């Protein structure tokens, strides 16, 4: 059955759009930007500090290794300059053991006492060989 | 509708009571037992990690390093934590780091069921390479290698440490706590399998303290001279061993202390057990005639012996308690000076019997015999000396000959130092100060003031008498050209199983120079020389050589009026 007459229509309705979305979106962006700025302000120095700490750790490690190497060299030098080693290499080093008679002394009065010169041995008289004809 | 409120009330009460119990339990856990639960929780997720601090050095007074430490690294592996199919790759990665062929490393993985050290004593730089591998079950442990750059020089004084880094002998043992410092303790987070995945979550619980270094009184140059001359003496006389001590009588500083045969603390396995003791403080031997000056000192202190008095040394000996004790010759009447110069047994015995037992005992004890010198070395013996309560009728005669008493070379040096120091006894010492890592002094050890044990007059007279021993007596071989030397020889028979052994002797020489203001006391003790056992032939020449070279090293001014 067809009923004529009034038929409800909604074409007269105007779509009601919420126009506040721009404001909300702007607010969100602004909030995000604010948070980002705040985080950047907080994190950036922290990040820099962290990076610096790692660098310090690396440099400290390098210093430790170098100090270890230096210590190794010091110990090696001690071995090489040990009195026993030097005594064994006396000739090679061009050194001679000191004798008591060759020492100069500084007295308590500040006077330098030089060792008494050893008498020069009298040269042996040249033997003249008699020519035998 | 009728509601049974009684039942509801009971339920409400029951629930309230339960809630109360829960609340009380929470209060107990959170408030009352808070610390216990917190520490229990920490124990579950953390574990302490002790990191040893570097061990301190041992440095001589002339700046030479006798002992130092090098940081090293050990690489460990735990095959149970490495997947079997990855063994080949891991071994290939480890090979260049530890310097082993991959096949050997794989074989080691097969042979070990758990944790084991793959390589030890590696350069610390390998740690970075191991970290780069990022392999579970492989890691590094920081270790330390003790280095003794001068080898066996002063070995028995320096001592050694064991594999765990604990001092076992010498200064290393005596000052172990000072040298090793305090380890740092870290808290490390660990996972459910009780492993620490990384060491990032380290929390320092207690900060450690690096070991302090020891600055010792030894002079490396004098030590070398003494050891060289002792080695020469052993080679020339065929002696079993020898020891010598050089000390400064004014403050007791030990400039050299040698004991041969010796050992290299860095290569302990290569030394014989016989050489691992410090004879200068651990061997107590009868001092023989070096003890005669102590008898004379006691007699002069007791006022029973005048300096110019003549002592009857005739008869070639003396009878004490029906025992005839021989002398070296028939001397007749001798002044005290010559009793010592000729080392007359008869003279010394007659002097000893003038002194009352308690007076003799006092002087012997005051000069440090029968008690340790308190030098900073472990295992120092106090020697053997029994007081008058256990003396026999022959005891004073025995003491006059340096028998019935045993002393270490350091004890004899201490007593002679008291004579050289004008009658003031100073205990010998080996440590000048402790220093921190930067070389700053932490604990300076100051010399204790001397204790008067002899009057200055007695000490001066005795020193003058001892000078005669070197000038005209048994100690001529101890002469140092240009310097006035005082000293005394001593030849003692070695006692074994209650009797004196005829073929085993100990040769001593104890003396000081340059007179009249001595700055060096030297004691030489040669154990069981073979070629000649007389101290005049064995110990006195060694003393002379050591003294000559030492005065040169120290640049001591020659004594005016001394024979050049």
Coarse morphology of chain A: rod-shaped
Mean pLDDT of chain A: 80
Inertia-based shape of chain B: elongated
By CATH, the superfamily of the domain at 220-430 and 447-554 in chain B comes out as: DD-peptidase/beta-lactamase superfamily
Secondary structural class of chain B: alpha+beta
Percent helix of chain B? 25-40%
What is the CATH third-level topology name of the domain at 220-430 and 447-554 in chain B? Beta-lactamase
Percent helix of chain A, as a range, is: 40-55%
Overview of the molecule:
The complex is a heterodimer of chains A (133) and B (564). With 133 residues, chain A is mostly helical. Chain A has a domain of 73 residues. Helices cover 50% and strands 3% of the residues of chain A. Chain A is built from 2 helices and 2 strands, in the order ααββ. Chain A has a two-stranded antiparallel sheet. Chain A is rod-shaped, with a radius of gyration of 52 Å. Chain A starts with 20 loop residues before the first helix and ends in a 20-residue tail after the last strand. The model of chain A has no long low-confidence stretch (mean pLDDT 80). In chain B, α3 runs antiparallel to α5 and α11 packs antiparallel against α17. The longest helix of chain B is centred in the N-terminal third of the chain and has 28 residues. Among the domains of chain B are: 42 residues, no CATH class; 319 residues, Beta-lactamase. In chain B, a hairpin with a 2-residue loop joins β21 and β22. Chain B has 564 residues and is of the alpha+beta class. The model of chain B has no long low-confidence stretch (mean pLDDT 89). Chain B is built from 18 helices and 23 strands. Chain B starts with a helix and ends in a 10-residue tail after the last helix. Chains A and B meet through α1, α2 and β1 of A and β3, α9 and α18 of B.
